[in-house]
Amino acid sequence: MTKRRPVFDHVIELNLQAGRRIGCNVYLIYDGDEYALFDIGYDEDVPEVLELVRQLDFSFEKCRYLIASHADVDHAQGLARAKSFLPNALVTAHPRAAEPLERGDRVITYAEIKAQNIEVPMPKAKVDLLVDEGDQLKVGRLTIDVWHTPGHTEGQIALRLGNLLFSGDNLFMDGSVGVIDAHHGSNIPDFIRSLERIRDAEGIEWLLPSHGPIFRRDPAMIQRTIDRLTQYQYLLDFGTCCVHWPVLDQWEREIALGILPQEREEHQKGTSETSSASDQTSSNAV
What we know:
Blueprint: E1 11-13, H1 14-18, E2 27-31, E3 34-38, H2 46-55, E4 63-67, H3 73-76, H4 79-85, E5 90-93, H5 95-103, E6 112-113, E7 118-119, E8 129-130, E9 136-139, E10 142-148, E11 157-161, E12 164-168, H6 188-200, E13 206-209, E14 215-216, H7 219-232, H8 246-257, H9 261-285
Parallel strand pairs: 3-4, 4-5, 5-8, 12-13
Antiparallel strand pairs: 1-2, 2-3, 6-7, 9-10, 10-11, 11-12, 13-14
Helix pairs in contact: 6-7
């Protein structure tokens, strides 16, 4: 038996436990001999992950849940294989994640990105238990609260356990977020609302993301991320995830008024000079 190295009471992160990065973060949440696995990773890594679980003296029969934070291939490709070894575990996901998981949808799950020559299998996985906002999962004496946190994907969930939030791909230690992509079902306003909820969550001290180090919740850092995503809503950087592009409004005005590029520059210069003069007048008055 391998000595357990919990990161917090009742929580083992299996990459840290292994002493090397296997894949996405895989959290084993346990109480007594019962446990749940939050994310499982790639299919090829399942044998190593489950061997580690066995070495930690957890019985395969005592796994209650195999939980998908969302349907991305790097989180969920191994669900069907893991289920075959964990007969009593309920494959658990949000309804909007269950759909691509059960179809084996390679586009929505990022198993197929032809422009980058990425094409990997996405085995279909039957989802046994659908969870949504406000639901609770029981592991031994532990009660785990389910949050629906869309944005990165429509079906992403986070789990709250006391002062811990298993935060999926909502936010990482450097302030970056999970990929924003229309094919993926991303939605920037939803993402902002999910981040605002995490920013304002009373009692949450630690964020346990699906990639990278565990870190303390920092409302100021989260606000910087929200500010960045707020700007993204009005830029074309993320294509059809853009809510509104003000440049087109300006272009339509210029077309309607027949404004030429040089005339726009002269107008902008005049506006800037007027603003500077006004600022100087105000300064002198003070």
